[in-house]
C-alpha cells in the first residue's frame, strides 16, 4: 500500500481526480468521487485523498481494507447522510429531532465547520446549542463548587458510624453520637435540640436586655453591675453549652479530627469568652497593676453573640447558607470587585462635579462613603449632591449599583437552592439509618443517576476542551 494513493488506480498525487473512494460508516457503504471531496480540502474525507501510507490513513479512519480499498469509520450511520448532503450541496441542514450535542460532535469529527449550516437552520441550531451549553455550564459550576456530593457525604457518615464497632462501648456511644449530632433522629434527639435552641435564645435575650437602661443596676459605688437574674441565666447557659460540647467530644468517632468540623468550632467559640473573662477577672483581682485587662474582658463578653451561630446545628437553612457562602467565593469576589470599581469611579466623578458646591465632597476618600451607600442602594441621605451634574452622577451610580448587585446574586441563589435540597435529602437518609445491630449495608442510593451526572459532566468538560483549543487542533492537522 505504501507509495500509492488509496482508492485511485495508478496511485500518485497526479492520478485521475474522477476516481472514487469506498467508505463504510457503521455499516453504511458509499462510493464518493474524489472531485466532490476535493471541493472541501479541510474535511476528513478530503484529506484521505492525499495520504501516501497506511499509517497516515489510519490516523484519519478507524480501519482500512487494502484489498477492497475501503475505509471504515466507527461513527453513527444515521447522521452520515447529513455529511453526504453537505458534500453534494455545500450546505448543512439540521433537523429539529436531532440532538444538538451529537450533531455538533459529528460534524466536528468530519472536519466540517459550523458556518456551513444553511441560513434556514442556523438560527435554531445556535439557539439550541447556547441553551445546551448554558445547562452544561450550570452543571459544571454546581459540580465544581461542591467538594463532595450527597452520596459521598452519606458514605462519610457511615464510615464515621462504623468506627464505633471497634471501640469500647461502641454501640452505646454510637446511640449518643446519633442523638446529639442528628436532630430529629429520635424523640430524645428532638428534645435535646429544642432545649439547646431555647438555651441559645435565652442567652441572647439576656445579653440584649442587659444593655437596656430599664434593667441596669448600680452597685454601692454607683457603677453598673450585673443583674443577678441575668447572671443565673448566663451560668445555666454556659453549663449547658459546656456539657453539650464535652458530651459530643467524648462520643466522637474520631477525637483527633473533632474540631475540624465547623459546628464544633462554633460550640467552642460560644463558651470560650466566658472562661477567658473569668480567668482575666481572677488575674486582675490578684494583680491590680493589670487593670487594663478588664477592658479585654468587656470585649470578650460581647463575643457571646457568636452563640447565635449554634442554631446552625439545628437549622437546615443556616447550614445550607454556610455551605453556599463557602462555595461561592468566586461570585462573592466578583461582587466585591464590581463594587470596588464602581465606588472608585463614581467617587472621582462626584468629587469632580461637587467639590466646589458641597463640603461633604471635599476629598475623594470622603466620597467613598457616599458612593458605597449609593451603589448598595442603602441611601442614608446623610451626604447628598446639590448640583444638577452631581444628581445625574448619583442617578448613574444608583443604576450601576443595581446592576452590579443583581448579576452575581442569581448564581448565589441557585447554589443555595442546590445545597438546601441536598441537605434535606441527606438528613432524610441519615434519619432512616438503623444501627441497632451494627452496620450491615449502606442505604439504597440511586447510583444510576449519580454516575450519569458524573459522566455527563466529564463529557461536557472534554467537549469544551476540544472546542477551546482550535490552534492546537490545527497544529496537529498540519503535522499530519
How does this model look, in words?
- It is built from 18 helices and six strands.
- The longest helix is centred in the C-terminal third of the chain and has 44 residues, at 388-431.
- The strands form two sheets. It has a four-stranded mixed beta sheet. It has a two-stranded antiparallel sheet with strand order 5-6.
- α11 (262-286) runs antiparallel to α12 and α14 runs antiparallel to α16.
- The chain starts with 19 loop residues before the first strand and ends with a helix.
- The protein is mainly alpha-helical.
- The chain is flat.
End-to-end gap: 18 Å
Largest sheet: 4 strands, mixed
Mean pLDDT: 75
Note the total helix count: 18
Q: Approximately how much helix is present in the residues?
A: 55-70%
Calculate Rg over CA atoms.
35 Å
- Number of β-strand runs: 6
The assigned structural class equals mainly alpha
Unreliable stretches (pLDDT < 50, length at least 5) are 1-5, 7-18, 137-149, 437-445, 465-480
Residue share in β-strands:
under 5%
Strand order of the largest sheet: 2-1-4-3
Note the run of SSEs as H and E: EEHHHEEHHHHHHEEHHHHHHHHH
**Overall spatial form:** flat
Quick tags:
two-stranded antiparallel sheet, disordered C terminus, 480 residues, 5% strand, single chain, flat, mainly alpha, 6 strands
Give a brief rundown of this model:
With 480 residues, the protein is mostly helical.
Protein topology:
Layout: E1 20-25, E2 28-33, H1 34-37, H2 44-48, H3 54-58, E3 63-65, E4 70-73, H4 80-89, H5 100-109, H6 119-145, H7 150-162, H8 170-181, H9 187-210, E5 217-218, E6 224-225, H10 228-250, H11 262-286, H12 293-302, H13 316-326, H14 329-354, H15 364-375, H16 388-431, H17 447-467, H18 470-479
Parallel strand pairs: 1-4
Antiparallel strand pairs: 1-2, 3-4, 5-6
Helix pairs in contact: 6-17, 7-16, 8-9, 8-10, 9-10, 10-11, 11-12, 13-16, 14-15, 14-16
